[in-house]
Specification:
By secondary structure, the protein is mainly beta. It is built from no helices and 43 strands. The protein has two domains: 114 residues, Jelly Rolls (Sandwich); 352 residues, YVTN repeat-like/Quinoprotein amine dehydrogenase (Methylamine Dehydrogenase, Chain H, 7 Propeller). A hairpin with a 4-residue loop joins strand 8 and strand 9. The mean pLDDT is 93.
Length: 475
């Protein structure tokens, strides 16, 4: 028998690349220089006033008829005459009415505004028009335009808009039909979208990239995300031209496209990609071997250089985590830091929409749900729980040694909280140890095996693993 050796694990994001041992799977933990709890959701709390001492409130839905939320949006309005800025959260649900709550106004009421109804959940775009804040709300049956100092007005003959953006004083829109055209209005008059005039028209996308699915403004340019690629719109002196900048092998998931810091992130069934305006790069985010083929309901938003993607994953481990115990649409939330492409993965929550909020000192990522708490607005929090229910935590290493010679594994030393399970998976089975105290825990055993993996699980509200060391001898 040769000299004793050790496997030391302190970096849980990637154990030791020189040995080829990487993380195989994890969820509901944050794997960095230690293993900590990940993110979760809870009921959203809004500030009563600018001063935190006034406290917070949750939305009072008693005056609303809805039982399920389908869309939320934020509308900031500056009133020149008074100098006041109002922040409104708009809510649309299964009763087809549009509701509103005034943030920072001492009111938790959710009120039906202007008797507005929509037959389907409206998409929204907030922008400036004539130095006034305005918002477009476009659904399958109508368009509503609301400008500061004016009541909303309806446009009933509008086409069905699938996405909108504004760049350099021009409004761009993609439509359900015709889907090979990008419409624009150089005077920002959304009611002219779908009509030919001196200030509105369309650009034909006559190539093999497929339908125009989403238009996005990024770095002073406009990009159209198609079924199978990206086109760039060039606009000089009222003259438009189009350039292909990327061709994809598989379909781009439209609602995963989001500008995040200095890149645009998007997802296909082959992986997660970043686009800097020139080049598309596949990221090293390693979860797409379990990406479900049916991810048409995947959605994403960005917030402070982090990309939040709600999607459906097939973990194939025989477990049912919270929302997975019944019918669900999405079961995972992937959060990627675009500065270094580290990421967290939350499992067990069925998110329908994400909505970032940057309102004065109130900075949150709001969410609504496909299943579970469907009638309330939630928010992303740093506690690994789904409202008041703790999310189970899981981490699995890849192979811990770099060869397949027979070895004798003899000791596990961990520094962690109590009541955390450490499973050693070897050629002949699994052996489990549960930490008995906070701090250093030691376990002695004899395992004769060619290879070893370490699995860590916990049902506790929090988790803190600082280090794991495994002793072994080579024959």
């Amino acid at each position: 028998m040769r000299n004793k050796r050790q496997i030391e694990i302190e970096d849980f994001s990637n154990i030791d690349k020189t040995k080829g041992a990487t993380v195989e799977r994890f969820y509901n933990v944050n794997p960095t220089s230690g293993l900590k709890q990940s993110l979760g959701v809870t009921l959203a709390e809004f500030p009563m006033r600018d001063d935190p001492s006034y406290g917070t409130y949750t939305l009072d839905m008693e005056m609303a008829d809805l039982t399920k939320l389908d869309r939320i949006a934020i509308f900031k309005q500056f009133f020149p005459t008074s100098g006041n800025t109002n922040f409104r959260i708009l809510l649309y649900g299964d009763d087809k009415k549009l509701y509103c709550n005034e943030m920072f106004m001492f009111s938790d009421f959710v009120l039906w505004i202007y008797n507005l109804t929509f037959e389907s959940a409206p998409i929204t775009l907030a922008f400036k028009k004539d130095d006034l804040d305005a918002i477009i709300m476009a659904s399958e049956d109508k368009m509503v335009i609301w400008t500061t100092n004016y009541s909303p007005y309806e446009v009933t003959d509008a086409p069905i808009i699938t996405s909108m953006c504004m760049n350099d004083g021009v409004l761009f829109c993609t439509l359900v039909e015709p889907a090979f055209k990008l419409w624009y209005a150089t005077d920002l008059r959304a009611e002219n979208i779908g009509k030919l005039s001196s200030n509105s028209g369309y650009i034909t996308l006559a190539d093999e990239l497929g339908y125009a699915k989403k238009v996005i403004a990024f770095n002073e340019s406009v990009y159209v995300f198609r079924e199978l690629g990206i086109s760039k719109i060039n606009f000089v002196k009222n003259e438009f031209s189009i350039t292909q900048v990327y061709i994809s092998r598989t379909q781009i998931l439209t609602n995963t496209v989001s500008a995040c810091g200095d890149v645009i992130m998007f997802c296909t069934k082959e992986g997660l990609y970043s686009f800097n305006g020139v080049k598309v790069t596949k990221t090293d985010v390693n979860i797409f071997d379990i990406l479900n083929n049916f991810n048409g309901n995947a959605v994403a938003e960005s917030f402070k250089n982090k990309y939040y993607l709600a999607l459906k994953l097939d973990f194939n481990d025989g477990k049912t985590i919270q929302c997975e115990s019944a019918s669900y649409t999405n079961n995972a939330l992937l959060v990627v830091d675009t500065l270094d492409y580290s990421y967290e993965l939350v499992r067990g929550i069925d998110i329908k929409q994400l909505q970032p909020v940057l309102a004065r000192d109130f900075e949150r990522m709001l969410v609504i749900f496909n299943t579970g708490n469907v009638g309330v607005v939630g928010e992303i929090i740093d506690t690994s729980s789904n409202f008041d229910v703790s999310l189970p935590k899981y981490w699995l290493s890849g192979d811990l040694v770099d060869d397949y010679n027979v070895k004798l594994f003899t000791k596990l030393i961990v520094e962690s909280d109590a009541d955390i399970k450490f499973n050693l998976i070897y050629d002949g089975g699994t052996i489990t140890f549960t930490t008995y105290q906070n701090g250093i825990n030691e376990f002695c055993f004899k395992i004769l095996s060619k290879q070893l993996k370490l699995e860590i699980t916990s049902d506790s509200e929090s988790i803190d693993v600082k280090k794991a060391v495994i002793d072994y001898y080579e024959y």
